[in-house]
TrEMBL record:
The name this protein goes by in its record: Olfactory receptor
One Gene Ontology molecular-function label: olfactory receptor activity
Keyword check for Cell wall biogenesis/degradation: no
The gene coding this protein: LOC100764963
Transmembrane feature ranges: 37-60, 72-90, 110-132, 152-169, 209-231, 252-273, 285-304
Organism the protein comes from: Cricetulus griseus (Chinese hamster)
InterPro entries: GPCR_Rhodpsn, GPCR_Rhodpsn_7TM, Olfact_rcpt
Entry GO terms, CC: plasma membrane
Length: 326
């Protein structure tokens, strides 16, 4: 990885001999200096809340015997990816708010972008796998334990990682192979594709095309698979004669549907439109939404709307109280 990034850095230097960019400056929220410390406090609190809530979900889904089923295995993996995703962006943003410098090396920017794309793409793939799991559980309940066994679940998660890593590596190489000669100031709070491409002085047609293709493969195709899965799930639920059965089936899917709507709505607005049509302010606002707000809402949505997790949390609270009193 280090060799790959040093290669693209050297390529960026040699393609433009007049200006050599060895570091970028993340402007972040420098346009509102009077709000720097207030934003620092808000983002720090939100970051700690995300870590705590997702950590709790990982803990209860791994330790509670009642939650040892595929749905919670995937949810635990999703929470882990969420923690990694926010850790790639928020600590760096907090540091910049403190120091008010915002400088980031070429190498660090490439690393950050690589992990942002990788973990973001992984979330979309996991949401698709979770939709498939709900489809099998509701539409094929007799075959569900056999089809969705532990080995299959592990393979599905591994397949998500294996499919996303080569694509992300290739995209990162493409973006950082471009010559950057316009400016080294990124009007964003982390290294993201749209603001980086605005700084490139070479032809970005191939890069934009690659982004749209990747968006189709990792956003639109999974989205269509989720839609098809839920159309079949809803048709199957409506055939149930028991009102209680329909209610239970809908309740197990509602949390996932809300998260899917939040993720895909933001992603389509951010990456499916032409880069030139997106203003810097709108880009930052959307990025705040999917890097901080959605990861903060996800564990809340899953815990408040899931009775099994609520029960598991109460049991954990009872155990901790008992341990504290003993």
């Amino acid at each position: 990885m280090e060799f790959f990034l040093s290669t693209v850095e050297e390529q960026s230097k040699t393609e433009n001999s007049n200006i050599t960019i060895t570091e970028f400056v993340l402007l972040g929220f420098s346009d509102v200096p009077h709000l720097q410390w207030m934003l620092f406090g808000i983002f720090l609190l939100m970051y700690l809340t995300i870590l705590f809530c997702n950590g709790i979900i990982m803990l209860v889904t791994r330790t509670d015997p009642a939650l040892q089923i595929p749905m919670y295995f995937f949810l635990s993996n999703f929470s882990f990816v969420e923690i990694c995703y926010v850790t790639v962006t928020i600590p760096r943003m907090l540091l910049d708010l403190c120091t008010q410098k915002g400088t980031i090396t070429f190498f660090s920017c490439a690393i950050q972008l690589c992990f942002v794309i990788m973990l973001g793409g992984m979330e979309f793939l996991l949401l698709t796998v979770m939709a498939y799991d709900r489809y099998m559980a509701i539409c094929n309940p007799l075959h569900y334990p056999l089809v969705m066994n532990n080995k299959v679940c592990v393979r599905l998660v591994a397949a998500c990682w294996i499919s996303i890593i080569p694509v992300v590596t290739g995209q990162t190489y493409q973006i950082f192979s471009l010559p950057y000669c316009k400016s080294n100031k990124i009007n964003h709070f982390f290294c993201d594709i749209p603001p980086l491409l605005k700084l490139a002085c070479g032809d970005t047609f191939v890069n934009n095309l690659a982004i749209y293709v990747a968006s189709v493969v990792f956003i639109m195709v999974p989205f269509l698979l989720i839609i098809v899965s839920y159309v079949k799930i809803i048709c199957n639920i409506l055939k149930l004669s028991s009102a209680g059965g329909r209610s239970k089936a809908f309740s197990t899917c509602s949390s996932h549907l809300i998260v899917v709507a939040l993720f895909y709505g933001t992603a389509i607005v951010t990456y499916a439109q032409p880069m030139s049509n997106q203003s810097d302010s709108m880009g930052k606002l959307l990025s705040l939404f999917y890097t901080i707000l959605i990861p903060l809402l996800n564990p809340i949505i899953y815990t408040l709307r899931n009775k099994e997790i609520v029960v598991a949390l109460r049991k954990l609270q009872t155990k901790l109280s008992t341990y504290g009193n003993s």
